[in-house]
Write a sequence for this structure.
């Protein structure tokens, strides 16, 4: 198939070797690229039971066949490994321009193995690879690191870097690129940190080839005009993800004070209108057609963002309504290389613990100056930050408060209240990397829809399957979530145009299902079953008091019913495991 | 010459997607290889604090044409380079005020407006690049 | 009765770009019926999202009262 470079760069940091090998095209035919293909590689190459922070773990940066082409919104890069936060497979998707530069350098993927014996960074300039000394950079924030490296090399280099959080091996450490884009969840930054790898710097001047390119780009430009640039998608240019704030407020799923309730009457103080007034520029990723990045300057806070997750986590969920504090905290988290969703949830839990008198973490709801200090301490592993960096699951095991430690499998809850969107509790529970909203975004169908009831378990198994299948294949082409109107048919047409092989919408659906299954098979091999597809007890026991979902809590039987519906649709056993016959097909 | 259409760029609309360079190279070089494009536009965060724009595109000023010593460059409502005549002296690239003319393997590569229907304009998602 | 209708997302095109209008509607009017009166038939709009009455999600067949604020959203997806 064309589109691919048919080349993988395999780096052994222990031996300081860089070798190339052909891409497993037989695997690409089943998993395409990006999310799916990277999970397949990890499934085949990682032994079960390894320590994610040991040399045995591998970190894979994987592009897709469309990376580097003019297919709109194809500029994302998959970053994956075994997660230090959960022990499950974890694949992230990072924006910016690194995906394109890796592809133009001639590689479909970079597989990083072993560990350096002291801090360093990898420099990739087309087929020239070198292992550079990183001791001067170790300890610096992501922003300073990127500034130094870009100054040294140039703007046409991409930098993928970790901050102090990755160096201190926090489960919430992310990998940053283009200053403000992250591979956020599951602690991928710590996988890099455990390998003493401070950064990957890459420049690519090569090419990507597709069949009949002159005609193909004309057809792709047509698809861009007729589909990508529909207003259903371009709202992200106008507002970015701030658009979700009002919808979640009205929809009753905006979390408040560590998910103790929903909705915030003060939401207009930090909403899209307020934030977008401070817009200093717009930016998108490589090959992006939409440009969701809002570059804001508010007071002395600068950030491309904040995204909805961060607004909610550092805003109402922290009992805060000061927008400048939200942006400042975002800037600090980005610089520290800390996942805002997880770090926010941990701090918000710590606030509830303190206010309930269960354990005094020294921080109360709304104390944003402390919040920002705590973020730095968490990243650097200093003082109380060292404890907090453990994540909410381990913290609750040590200090109590597990009923409201909002996580699944050790990955903290994204900012959508499942008692207001019951299918979301299922989506969080069965997602491959722990609680994640990007696998099946249930509120889109349950809450942001005129006639589907959100407060019932009926039909939610199938709903979550359909959404998860769709995103699984979309993220395996490496197309961004925000091209929302993209259909299976259009994906099939794009795959056919780019690879020269005939793909149908049914093929796309099959890949989606297969990707969900292989991720599940990886986790199953690590010992995960239905008992780990959980929800925090708060969801079952505490009824919401405010908003349209007032009075709602999810009965445990309804939750178990939704799980069984999902397992049935997937063809899994009642204990959430895959039958051997299904594993054999992967 | 009457109303000759030219490329025009509004930087506030640019999202830095670089689809322009990708499609230019696809159309002229048979592959997506933006390092060999005839338009170079990018945005970047300067030390994370300021959004900056680098834009290099041909606006048909004609300085390359006027300075070419061999007559390899011709110009009416677009610029064309005859590679059989071009000796790769680099005068055009040196004189180009927009730094968009590049030499590769001793030949000059200059934007030809895709014969009056620029592909970069077609793919620009925000209308930052227009032709009028 | 008089209500205020607010539109969000791509629905603002039905008010020619305005985000809100006052509408005169009959008693016991449902959200669905009120929207129809101002030219919005949700069943015919592919990306019609949901409605909220007085800042709280409602069903399309819920009834309105005098002075209510009815908000209609287009679908937004992502995270």
């Amino acid at each position: 198939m064309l589109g691919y470079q048919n080349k993988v760069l395999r780096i052994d940091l222990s031996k300081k070797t860089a070798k190339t090998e052909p891409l497993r095209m037989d695997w690409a035919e089943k998993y395409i690229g990006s999310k799916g293909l990277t999970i397949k590689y990890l499934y085949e190459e990682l032994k079960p039971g390894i320590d994610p922070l040991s040399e045995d773990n591998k970190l894979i940066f994987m592009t897709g066949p469309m990376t580097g082409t003019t297919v709109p919104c194809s500029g994302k890069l998959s970053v994956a490994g075994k997660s230090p936060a959960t022990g499950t497979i974890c694949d992230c998707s990072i924006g910016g321009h690194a995906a394109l530069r890796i592809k133009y350098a001639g590689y479909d993927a970079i597989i990083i193995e072993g560990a350096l014996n002291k801090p360093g960074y990898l420099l990739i300039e087309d087929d020239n690879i070198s292992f550079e000394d990183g001791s001067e950079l170790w300890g610096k924030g992501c922003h300073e690191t990127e500034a130094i490296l870009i100054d040294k090399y140039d703007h046409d280099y991409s930098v993928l870097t970790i901050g102090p959080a990755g160096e201190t091996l926090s489960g919430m450490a992310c990998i940053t690129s283009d200053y403000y884009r992250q591979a956020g969840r599951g602690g991928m930054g710590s996988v890099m940190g455990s390998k003493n790898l401070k950064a990957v710097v890459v420049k690519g001047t090569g090419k990507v080839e597709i069949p009949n390119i002159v005609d193909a780009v004309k057809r792709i430009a047509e698809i861009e005009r007729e589909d990508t640039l529909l207003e259903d998608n371009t709202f992200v240019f106008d507002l970015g993800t701030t658009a979700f704030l009002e919808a979640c407020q009205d929809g009753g799923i905006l979390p408040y004070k560590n998910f103790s309730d929903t909705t915030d009457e003060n939401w207009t103080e930090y909403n899209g209108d307020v934030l977008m007034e401070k817009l200093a520029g717009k930016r998108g990723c490589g090959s992006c057609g939409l440009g969701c990045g809002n570059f804001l300057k508010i007071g002395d806070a600068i950030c491309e963002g904040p995204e909805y997750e961060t607004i909610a986590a550092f805003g109402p969920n922290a009992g805060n309504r000061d927008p400048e504090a939200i942006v400042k905290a975002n800037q600090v988290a980005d610089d520290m290389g800390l996942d805002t969703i997880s770090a926010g949830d941990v701090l918000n839990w710590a606030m509830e613990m303190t206010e309930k008198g269960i354990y005094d973490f020294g921080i109360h709801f709304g104390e944003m100056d402390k919040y920002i200090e705590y973020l730095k301490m968490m990243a650097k592993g200093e003082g109380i930050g060292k404890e907090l960096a453990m994540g909410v699951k381990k913290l609750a095991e040590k200090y109590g408060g597990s009923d409201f430690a909002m996580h699944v499998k050790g990955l903290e809850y994204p900012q959508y209240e499942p008692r207001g969107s019951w299918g979301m509790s299922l989506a969080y529970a069965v997602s491959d990397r722990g609680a994640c909203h990007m696998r099946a975004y249930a509120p889109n169908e349950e809450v942001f829809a005129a006639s589907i009831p959100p407060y019932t378990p009926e039909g939610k198994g199938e709903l979550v399957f359909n959404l998860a299948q769709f995103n699984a294949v979309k993220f395996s082409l490496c197309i961004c979530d925000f091209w929302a109107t993209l259909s299976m048919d259009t994906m099939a047409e794009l795959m056919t145009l780019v690879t020269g092989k005939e793909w149908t919408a049914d093929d796309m659906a099959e890949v989606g299902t297969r990707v969900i299954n292989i991720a599940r098979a990886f986790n199953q091999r690590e010992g995960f079953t239905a008992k780990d597809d959980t929800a925090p007890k708060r969801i079952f026991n505490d009824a919401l008091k405010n908003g349209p979902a007032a009075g709602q809590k999810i009965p445990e039987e309804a939750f178990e019913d939704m799980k069984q519906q999902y397992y049935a649709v997937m063809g899994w056993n009642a204990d959430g495991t895959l039958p051997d016959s299904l594993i054999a097909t992967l | 010459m009457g109303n000759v259409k030219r490329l025009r760029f509004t930087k506030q609309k640019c999202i830095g997607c670089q689809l322009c360079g990708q499609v230019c190279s696809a159309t002229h070089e048979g592959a997506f290889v933006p390092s060999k494009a005839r338009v170079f536009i990018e945005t970047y965060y300067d030390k994370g604090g300021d959004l900056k724009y680098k834009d290099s595109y041909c606006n048909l000023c004609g300085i390359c044409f006027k300075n070419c010593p061999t007559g390899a460059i011709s110009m009416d409502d677009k610029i064309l380079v005859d590679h059989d005549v071009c000796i790769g002296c680099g005068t055009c690239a040196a004189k180009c005020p927009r730094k968009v003319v590049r030499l590769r393997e001793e030949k000059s590569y200059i934007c030809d407006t895709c014969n009056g229907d620029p592909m970069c304009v077609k793919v620009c998602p925000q209308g930052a690049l227009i032709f009028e | 009765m008089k209500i205020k209708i607010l539109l969000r997302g791509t629905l603002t095109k039905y008010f020619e770009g305005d985000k809100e209008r006052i509408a005169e509607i009959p008693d016991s009017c449902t959200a669905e019926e009120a929207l129809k009166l101002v030219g919005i038939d949700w069943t015919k709009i592919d990306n019609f999202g949901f409605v909220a009455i007085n800042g709280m999600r409602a069903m399309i067949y819920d009834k309105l009262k005098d002075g209510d604020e009815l908000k209609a959203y287009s679908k937004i997806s992502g995270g």
